[in-house]
């Protein structure tokens, strides 16, 4: 089927209280992995590309692969721009056929963020493209940071209420203590879950959790065994996903875990098969490992069978 409207996908997710996974893609194997797993588990999914992923793969290649893959799918699949920096980024993706765009003006002050997001909402409205915005700063709650300072980076619920009303966004990424990459927490993972509940009550819209990878220890161990150096990597615990979803998170972004899965499988393959150099031989297990991560996230986010 053609790419689906993320607005429709959110309507069902909000009503039935589950989260749709955003899987970041860079190449053919990631796209195939996501679509095969979505079909197998009858789950709705969001494929996402950052501007650097678009630059790496090339917009034409990327969209041709996504559209070719989706043609065979019976479940809803949306194509989303991750962390668009400008309205021009959003326009480029809307023109290329994306069904959802993120405009990340979270580094601006509240008025600036509203103004830039509104520009993208106006651009997207006539084409029923979904618009995600971000309020607050991702960065992790560090033990060393004093309370007032760390709270200043988290999404303020009252600001969120005004932001959603005035910006016209369809989904809001909230900062509750997660951060991008493999080093999210120094000691015990700590997330400001109460804020999710409060922001959901005040806005009622689909909320998004960025920087949500779990950084699975088994993948780290496998990668380290075969030469990777990733000291102190730590991610979001599995239990936190259920809690976050029950409080109103409807989209959870996963990139790092897929990269770790791909990389650790390739390392293992080369360690065990030092004479092999056919990319199909080492990319097949890497893709399988990415698929296992995706299956696990779909189960944890409660969206299996919702497609
Ligand atoms: O949020 C960031 C995503 O993980 C995308 O990362 O810009 O390296 O593609 P990237
Ligand atoms: P991770 O780095 O935790 O996978 O987060 C990805 C993300 O938020 C993409 O927008
Ligand atoms: Zn993100």
Q: What do you see in this structure?
A:
The chain has 307 residues and is α/β, with parallel strands linked by helices. It has a single domain, classed as Aldolase class I (TIM Barrel), CATH 3.20.20. Strands 1-2-3-4-5-6-7-8 form an 8-stranded parallel beta barrel, surrounded by 10 helices. Helix 2 packs parallel to helix 4, helix 2 packs across helix 13 and helix 5 packs parallel to helix 6. The model has no long low-confidence stretch (mean pLDDT 96). Bound molecules: glyceraldehyde-3-phosphate, 1,3-dihydroxyacetonephosphate and zinc ion. 1,3-dihydroxyacetonephosphate binds next to strand 3, strand 8 and helix 12.
How would you describe this structure in keywords?
307 residues, alpha/beta, TIM Barrel, eight-stranded parallel beta barrel, 51% helix, 14% strand, globular, binds glyceraldehyde-3-phosphate, binds 1,3-dihydroxyacetonephosphate, binds zinc ion
Give the CATH topology. TIM Barrel
Low-confidence stretches: none
Q: Residue share in helices?
A: 40-55%
Largest beta sheet: what is the strand line-up?
1-2-3-4-5-6-7-8
Name of the CATH first level: Alpha Beta
End-to-end separation? 12 Å
Secondary structure category: alpha/beta
Question: Which band does the percent of strand residues land in?
Answer: 5-15%
Which whole number gives the mean pLDDT?
A: 96
Distinct bound molecules: glyceraldehyde-3-phosphate, 1,3-dihydroxyacetonephosphate, zinc ion
Major β-sheet annotation? 8 strands, parallel, barrel
| CATH A-level architecture | Alpha-Beta Barrel
Measured on Cα atoms, how large is the radius of gyration?
19 Å
CATH superfamily: Aldolase class I
Strand and helix order: HEHEHHEHEHEHHEHEHHEHH
Q: Helical element count?
A: 13
How would you describe the shape?
globular
């Amino acid at each position: 089927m053609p790419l689906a409207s993320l607005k429709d996908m959110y309507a069902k997710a909000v009503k039935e209280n589950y989260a749709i996974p955003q899987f970041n893609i860079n190449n053919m194997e990631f796209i195939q992995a996501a679509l095969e797993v979505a079909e197998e588990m009858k789950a709705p999914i969001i494929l996402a590309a950052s501007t650097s992923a678009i630059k790496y793969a090339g917009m034409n290649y990327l969209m041709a692969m996504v559209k070719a893959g989706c043609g065979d799918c019976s479940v809803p699949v949306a194509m989303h721009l991750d962390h668009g920096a400008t309205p021009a980024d959003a326009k480029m993706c809307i023109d290329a056929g994306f069904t959802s765009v993120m405009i990340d003006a979270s580094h601006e002050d509240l008025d600036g963020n509203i103004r830039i997001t509104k520009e993208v909402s106006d651009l997207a409205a006539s084409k029923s493209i979904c618009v995600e915005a971000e309020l607050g700063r991702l960065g992790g709650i560090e033990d060393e940071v004093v309370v007032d300072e760390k709270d200043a980076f988290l999404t303020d619920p009252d600001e969120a209420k005004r932001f959603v009303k005035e910006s016209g966004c369809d989904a809001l990424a909230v900062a509750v203590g997660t951060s991008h990459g493999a080093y999210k927490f120094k000691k015990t993972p700590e997330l400001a879950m109460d804020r999710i509940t409060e922001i959901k009550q005040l806005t009622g819209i689909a909320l998004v959790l960025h920087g949500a990878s779990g950084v699975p220890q088994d993948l780290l161990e496998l990668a380290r065994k075969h030469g990777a150096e990733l000291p102190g990597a730590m991610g979001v615990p599995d239990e936190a996903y259920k809690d976050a979803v029950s409080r109103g998170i409807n989209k959870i972004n996963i990139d790092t875990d897929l990269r770790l899965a791909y990389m650790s499988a390739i390392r293992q393959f080369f360690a065990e098969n030092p004479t092999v150099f056919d990319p199909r031989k080492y990319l097949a297990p890497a893709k399988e490992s990415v698929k296992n991560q995706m299956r696990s996230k779909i189960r944890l986010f409660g969206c299996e069978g919702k497609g």
